[in-house]
Amino acid sequence: MMKTELNELVTNLNTFGGSWGEWKGGEKTESGTIQIPYVVEAPILTEARQFLNNNELVVTFDWPNWQEGRDIFTSKDPEKFDNLDQETVLKLLSAVMRNARFNEGAWVNLFESGDGGKLFQRLLELQD
C-alpha cells in the first residue's frame, strides 16, 4: 500500500469542507414518469473508493451476513474503530462499498456519519 498516497487521502478527507454527496432525480418528467433518485458523490469519495480498488484492498467475503461488522457500526462507543486490525478496517470499508451498489447513498452516508474518515485514519495508523 502506498503510505504517502494514503496519508494525502486522509488529509484531504479530514480537511474536506463541502457536501459529501447530493441527491438528484426523483422529479416527474413531462410524460409523468418519475426519475429514480440517485446520489452524486463528492470527488473525494470517488478518490477514496479508487484508492481501495487500485491498491487491491477490497476484501471479498460474505459481507451481507457479517454480524460483527453491523455490531461495530451500530456501537455507540466513540472509540469503536481505535483498536481494529487492518483486516477488520478493510472489511468494514469493503462491506459499505459493496452495499452501496444495492443501497444508493451508503458510501456517502459512511462519510457523512464521520465513520469513513475514522476508518481511513485507522488504516493510516496501522501503516506505522
Please characterize this protein's 3D structure.
It contains 6 helices and 2 strands. The chain has 128 residues and is mainly alpha-helical. The chain has a domain of 46 residues. Strands 1-2 form a two-stranded antiparallel sheet. The longest helix is centred in the last third of the chain and has 14 residues. The protein starts with a helix and ends with a helix. 19% of the residues are buried.
Enumerate how many helices there are, as a single number. 6
Give the integer mean of the pLDDT values.
94
The biggest beta sheet, please?
2 strands, antiparallel
How are strands sequenced across the largest beta sheet? Answer: 1-2
Distance between the termini: 12 Å
**What is the chain-wise order of helices and strands?**
HEEHHHHH
Low-confidence segments, given as residue ranges, are none
How many beta-strand elements?
Answer: 2
Which shape, going by the Cα principal axes? globular
Radius of gyration: 16 Å
Helix proportion? 40-55%
Q: How big a fraction of the residues is strand? A: 5-15%
Structural class: mainly alpha
Secondary-structure topology with pairs:
Blueprint: H1 3-15, E1 21-24, E2 38-41, H2 43-54, H3 67-74, H4 86-99, H5 106-112, H6 115-125
Antiparallel strand pairs: 1-2
Helix pairs in contact: 1-2, 1-6, 4-6
Give the gist of this structure.
This protein is mainly α and 128 residues long. The chain has a domain at 83-128. Helix content is 51%, strand content 6%.
